């Protein structure tokens, strides 16, 4: 995983557009910002870099079944990255956190095995 240095104005805009939302919302904003002509791998690395900065600044944590993931931020993101589907076509079109069987249309798997928990300056905490 390669952490990309994201310009402050871009980071701030993507944060404003996706805070309090699921990972799918952030993924959608990354696609919009980078454009669909960008590679799947470039979008993935940009997304993970946004997550890294959000986590480093204390705005975001990852949790599963009401328990925060353990390990350093880089360790958590490495695990998230390892689980990431290799083929973009496997991602569900509505919620990228799921893979889909395109022959039946059924969702197969919640691949990240964790969700976003947002932390706000006023002390409010919101899970997705």
What does this structure look like?
The chain has 128 residues and is of the alpha+beta class. It has one domain (8-127): NMB0513-like. It is 40% helix and 17% strand. It has helices at 8-18, 23-34, 40-56, 73-83, and strands spanning 60-64, 67-68, 98-100, 107-110, 115-119, 125-127. The strands form 2 sheets. The chain has a 4-stranded antiparallel beta sheet with strand order 2-1-5-6. Strands 3-4 form a two-stranded antiparallel sheet. A hairpin with a 2-residue loop joins strand 1 and strand 2. Helix 1 (8-18) packs across helix 2 (23-34), helix 2 packs across helix 3 (40-56) and helix 3 runs antiparallel to helix 4. It is globular and about 45 Å long.
Provide a short characterization of the protein structure:
By secondary structure, the protein is of the alpha+beta class. Helices cover 40% and strands 17% of the residues.
List SSEs in N-to-C order.
HHHEEHEEEE
- Rg calc: 14 Å
* CATH level 3 topology: NMB0513-like
Q: What order do the strands of the largest sheet run in, or round the barrel if closed?
A: 2-1-5-6
Q: Could you say which overall geometry the principal axes of the C-alpha atoms support?
A: globular
Helix percentage: 25-40%
CATH class: Mainly Alpha
The separation of the N and C termini measures 24 Å
Q: Tell me the CATH architecture.
A: Orthogonal Bundle
Number of strands: 6
Largest sheet: 4 strands, antiparallel
Q: What fraction of residues sit in β-strands?
A: 15-25%
Return residue spans where pLDDT drops below 50 for at least 5 consecutive residues: none
Mean pLDDT value: 92
Total domain count: 1
Pfam families: DUF596 (PF04591)
Protein name: DUF596 domain-containing protein
